[in-house]
Amino acid sequence: MADIDAAGAEIVLPKRPNPVVGVLKSFLLVRESKVAMVGTAILVFWVLIAVLAPVIAPYPPTQQVSEMRNAAPGTPVPAGTALISFTEQGVAEIPIEGTYWLGGDRLGRDVLSRMIWGAQSVLIYAPLATFFAYMVGITMGLLAGYKRGWVDDVLSRLGDVILSFPILVLYVVIITTFGASGITIVLAVTFASGPGIMRIVRGLVLDLRNRDYVAAAQTRGESSLYIMFVEILPNARGPLIVDACLRLGYTTITIGVLGFLGLGLPPPDPNWGNMIAENREAVLTAPHSTVFPCLAISSLVLALNLLADGLREISLKD
Amino acid sequence: MLIFLGKRLLAMIATMLVVSVLVFLLLEVNGDAVAVKVLGPYSTLEQRTNWLTANGYDRDEHVRYFDWLFSMMRGDFGESIVFHVPASEIVMDRLGNTAVLGGLVFLIMVPLGLLFGVLAGMKEGSLQDRSVTLISVITTSIPEFASAVLLTFLFVFLLGWLPATSSMSDGWDPAQMVLPVMVLVLYAFGYIARMMRASMAEVMQSPYIRTAILKGLPYNRVIMKHALRNALIAPFTVIILQINWLLSGVIVVEYFFNYRGFGALLLTASLNQDIYVIQACAMVAVFVAVGTQTIADVGYTYLNPRIRFT
């Protein structure tokens, strides 16, 4: 039912823009910056690799061929090599052929296949951990910035304390206390980077909470929850998207570092940090098994940093 | 000024206290878990109970907390389970090695970062600006463990110029310091360069620089005497706060190059559940971190004439 104003004319309220469409539209802006385009291209490349991993990986990521231990890049699998598998019908021999294009690792697994599956591992856990950190950080930031008062004091002090820890020291202590697993990694990242996100959101909210549309919503009698999440949050999206790209890159590094230190996902997992950790001893004898994963993780982080830079540049233009 | 200093010191002590409660809750509050770590997983229940009573773990939590806190303040962190020496002794020893590493990193990273930043910020949008920005984005995108591998590959495997480990087993060897220092500098100098660039670019747009140029001062003089002095204020905080980052960075680098420093100690202590060494390391790390934050705050206020103490 349409509202009628005093003069009898129909009031047509402007349609509220859909926040999801808004976020998607801002991603289309990358076309305005070359730097952002390059970042997006590398990112899309890795996402495609991760999604298509089951199709394009030449070998299973954990399949070991003892003849291929530390094999140099481009070594063909020796003829007659077979994987012996025990099935209900008895012992079956599955022949293995082809070439290890990026060589074999310490256990004779194909480095290329592990790198491809590793992309999947990183691109599941890094966004997941960043997402949870944002959920917590945004909620805390909105509460602190909008409610002010003691809520703000408590949350900000708590954030200061957590942020005063050297971050890796915090991760090492948390993860060795609770054990290494995917869930602990996500929780540790949430715990350690939530307060940083809170600070940014809080700063944005302090600026936005005095806008007219917030006052209008308050006059309409909307609930605080509605104002925080529907009125304020969508308008803070610009800087948050830039920050999310940077943080995603940083989480990628964190997951890699934890894998490298032996605190990440448990061993058979082919993520890049684990690959580097497992073949660390062979840096001087078979460097391909560590150098390629290093290049992979660096390019992914670079892509996210370039994207963040480009988006920031675009937002400054307006 | 004194009031401001006092406030900062109080805030620092408050943060340390909250952190100590967190560390206590995380590692110390569950006495049974501590007993298992100290006596090993194959100790009997009776041994553990005796140990808990002998070490006062049967008292109330708050009594234990304050006892634990006061003995830490006296420098008594307990005895390392792995090394069988006081935790404070071994932490201080390793901290000295890390200070050497960190000092060298700062000695190279700060001038390099500032130089690149000034060169870029002098002429915003110029070729040198864009190259510096690109270089710093690339170097900060390579995680420390990746650049450690890549630099080892380049300088040890391909060129054979440097040793691959930095354990210093045959006495102190400067050549063994090169790779660890290079890895840390490479990762962090770009950040300082970008901060310096932003600060420099902002200063270069201010009216007094335009005046200095228009009244015909030589360009070098404008940069060195007029711009630099003000442009250095903001990066100062960033540089001091890099000490906090360095405590994280050294874990990876010391582990990779087998350098016997604080980071490697924290990692091995954590992996071996050497609980008193973990506690000592965590408290020392937070003390250094909070201390540098306080120095950064106070220094910034002191350097910036526009902030008056309130």
Structural account:
- The complex is a heterodimer of chains A (318) and B (310).
- Chain A is built from twelve helices and six strands.
- Chain A is mainly alpha-helical and 318 residues long.
- Chain A has a single domain, classed as Orthogonal Bundle (MetI-like fold).
- The two termini of chain A are 38 Å apart.
- With 310 residues, chain B is mainly α.
Query: Can you count the beta strands of chain A?
Result: 6
Mean pLDDT metric of chain A = 82
User: H/E element string of chain A?
Assistant: EEHHHEEEEHHHHHHHHH
Strand order of the largest sheet of chain A: 1-2
SS class of chain A: mainly alpha
Largest interface: A-B, 38 and 48 residues
CATH topology type of the largest domain in chain B: MetI-like fold
CATH architecture annotation name of chain A: Orthogonal Bundle
Taken together, the total number of domains of chain B comes to 2
Assembly form of the protein: heterodimer
Give the % helix of chain B: over 70%
What is the strand tally of chain B?
A: 0
Helical content band of chain A: 55-70%
> How many DSSP helices of chain B?
13
Order of helices and strands of chain B: HHHHHHHHHHHHH
Biggest beta sheet attributes of chain A: 2 strands, antiparallel
